[in-house]
């Protein structure tokens, strides 16, 4: 179903349960490629298009999988393919997370460079640089990466940018490298810790320290293990903002509150009242937000994956808010769609200037990427009248059953097929 229709204006009320984190599930699924003739079992795997794409990739490489509810078992044979199929890598950038484990486990891999997307170019130069420092020979011909390494060797690696994917690829490569690898200036997103737990379960010594430095002692062979995917802090935050933007009372369950500190701090600044439980947060009705200034940056800063949703929420604030995007070059394309709904957003360089308005009006809009689509849904929930959101395929990549979850909170939501073009 590629179109979502929302009739806005209803304050949302009720409880919504958070899915397993997309951005934790994808790397830990890729880590199964390190196994030889063993099994990885993951609990709390979300049912998302991106997860299905990763499953297709793993199946192409020779992994057999079994899903029982949100428990997934990955059985990896002694021999697997080391060539990642082009159509899957082009479809999802996270396929590049096969690079590190395949190279470490097979000694070679062939993987197309991932394409860019609507939020900017998405190179993997930091991934490749780290692998070459560990002894890999890497060539790029016609957009395909040819990597070869008889034995990766542990060493100190400094990341020019705390890239999430580069951190994850190098951690997985280091698991089978000879000796110790120390990665400096790593990403510190909670998803990194989830991957570290899986590698520890596989018998690898991983010391993350939580300070942006990861120490890994490589092993000859990794063991099978079982791990749980952490809750999706971005999905959870999106539903918190659905409560805020509609002036409702929403409880988001199954979260790790500490993973949402940056959002909660900004909501407190904006005058939102909320209660934080051990694994839930409840937001209470607020008439109108106060404007705030935000800089989207690597964790523990305000998450770039929540920047579009926060901008949508601030379109109705009582004053001028500023939101700077410091991670991606072009993550404001959705603002034009919000302005078509009556928002007043001006983009100056890497900053959105949001002049709060009294109300938004429903319109026909288009989701350009996953989080842009989420931002449009939030705006539609608050807007007067009906909004039609096209290209929902982007939203299904990262939000499990969002129509059902929103309906359960009282939203007037309907899905339909796009007309034949
Ligand atoms: C992960 O992408 C997430 N995806 C993204 O979530 C998230 O926005 C991003 O981290 C930042 O938090 C998954 O985990 C599957 P990066 P990733 O490497 O690993 C540049 C979503 O909405 N860079 O931290 O690709 C890059 O161009 C998605 O769920 C290089 O220049 O992000 C970008 O500007 C969107 N060279 C910045 O760093 C590299 O080798 C952050 O990239 C790698 C990255």
Describe the model.
- This protein has 14 helices and 23 strands.
- The chain has helices at 22-30, 49-61, 86-91, 99-106, 125-133, 164-174, 190-201, 233-245, 261-269, 307-314, 335-339, 370-382, 393-396, 402-408; strands at residues 3-7, 13-17, 38-43, 64-68, 71-76, 108-112, 137-141, 144-148, 156-158, 180-184, 205-207, 213-217, 225-228, 249-253, 274-276, 280-283, 293-296, 320-325, 345-348, 351-355, 364-366, 386-390, 412-416.
- A four-stranded mixed sheet has the order 21-22-1-23, covered by helices on one side.
- The longest helix has 13 residues, at 49-61.
- The mean pLDDT is 96.
- It binds ligand EPZ.
- Ligand EPZ is lined by residues 22-23, 26, 93-94, 120-127, 161, 163-166, 187, 304-305, 327-328, 370-371, 398.
